Amino acid sequence: MASAPNWKNRTLFTGDNLDIMRGVNSDSVDLIYADPPFNSNRNYEAPIGSEAAGAAFKDTWTLSDVDVAWIGLIAERELALASIIDAAGVAHGKGMQSYLVMMTVRLLEMRRLLKPTGSVYLHCDATASHYLKLVLDCIFGASAFRSEVTWKRTSAKGLARANYPANADTILYYAKTQDCAWNPQYRPLEREYVESHYTKIEPETGRRYRLDNLLNPNRDRPNLTYEFMGVTRVWRWTQERMKAAHEKGLIVQTKPGGTPQLKRYLDESKGTQVDTVWDDIPAINSQAKERVGYPTQKPLALLERIIKASSNEGDVVLDPFCGCATALVAAETLNRQWIGIDLSSLAVKLVLSRLQKAADDGALFQGGKLPEVHHRTDIPTRTDVGKLPPYKTHRHTLYGKQEGHCAGCGHHFPFRNLTVDHIVPKSKGGTDHLDNLQLLCGACNSMKGTMDQAAFVARLKREGIGE
Ligand SMILES: C[S@@+](CC[C@H](N)C(=O)[O-])C[C@H]1O[C@@H](n2cnc3c(N)ncnc32)[C@H](O)[C@@H]1O
């Protein structure tokens, strides 16, 4: 069941998306577009003097003891996921393992936030797309996989010896269930196709058209077998429908006795349905009007296609790695609600200036008045967990569950010496739910403080406690 959101439409959070997503209500988002760092082994900076100057993010990954602790925590929850991360470490190295830890814990949160009718698009490239697909199959289920889109940018990257210059990104699309929003997208017909197929021009109107077959591929349809314009065949349509189309001048015979055919006008064609190869949307180049200079900025047309295909007006779009807010601007233009998250506070400035530009151009907000964009730096508090009993009332249950042992050092303590700790600290979106609680002894509790569990486990290990 979808829950009421605990954020306002048009909210931009500055901070780590893991902390922020943990504080967002479950089942409250229709579409997630995630464009994280790709594990490119580079660090990005916006050019000085550009609108995005000052923006920078790292994309180099080294396995830390906290990552190792994370893998242990992931294994407790979903062993297969931890195995995938470990296997990637063996095949590709520890940097990949660290990158996949970062992605996995966030994708698990994304699964929780998506409504049962929701969809997720993960933008990546060949460096990690194969590992990320395993992770996504494991998190959402292999049957949730819908498409692997190849977005062919027009400019190739990387001219090292003995490889083909990389010219494409991968976008992995998953939908939680068959009930997801789905609006097929179309692109204009290729010129060669128009020229070879739409060869006829109606003299009275100048409209271009082609002739389409009206014969039924199934010959065994007695109710559709009849004579029409002097020709007896098995037709696709009923006699009434054929007659109506004929009266409108849509059914023609090219010669007397010839098989009647249907006129299909070029100006009524929806175009070609967009398939999994997207080579019609160029990357942002130095001359592009929408360019703000943000490193790895994606084109608005790309986001518009995704949002139109996998959401409807009024739906909620979340971009947890929103950068210069391309997805948010596209969502606004298409009348969707949106939330964005980025580590960099520049996203706020950029979304405001990009929305203002769209308003000035008349593309948005008739009258040019920008609606309020909410900027938050706090971690939201979930409001969908019902009224929970005070967390201290779980002490006895936890004491039984842990058989009197501290969840940190593992030593046995009398009941009075163990205190309740929030596994995900409350300051980082953790709730008072039993699943988020553990008992720690005084020393372990003060060592943990407001640390994340993975950082705490790593610290215990470093200090040789509880082994
Ligand atoms: C590839 S860029 C996104 C570009 C964006 N799609 C656009 O069109 O501008 C990745 C973004 O993720 C942000 N980022 C990286 N790690 C993050 C994290 N843990 N939480 C929030 N944002 C993060 C970076 O600051 C960067 O802006």
Structure in words:
With 467 residues, this protein is α/β, with parallel strands linked by helices. It folds into three domains: 11-185 and 274-376, 3-Layer(aba) Sandwich (Rossmann fold), CATH 3.40.50; 191-268, no CATH class; 391-462, Orthogonal Bundle (DNA Binding (I), subunit A). The protein is 30% helix and 22% strand. It contains 13 helices and 21 strands. It has helices at 17-22, 65-77, 79-92, 94-113, 129-140, 191-197, 239-247, 300-310, 326-333, 346-360, 395-401, 442-448, 453-462, and strands at 11-14, 29-34, 42-45, 56-59, 114-124, 145-157, 166-175, 186-187, 200-201, 208-212, 225-228, 231-234, 251-252, 261-265, 272-273, 277-278, 316-319, 337-342, 374-376, 418-422, 437-441. Strand 17, helix 9 and strand 18 form a beta-alpha-beta unit. Helix 4 (94-113) packs parallel to helix 5 (129-140). The model has no long low-confidence stretch (mean pLDDT 93). It binds S-adenosylmethionine (SAM). S-adenosylmethionine (SAM) is lined by residues 16-17, 35-37, 57, 294, 296-298, 321, 323-324, 326, 341-344.
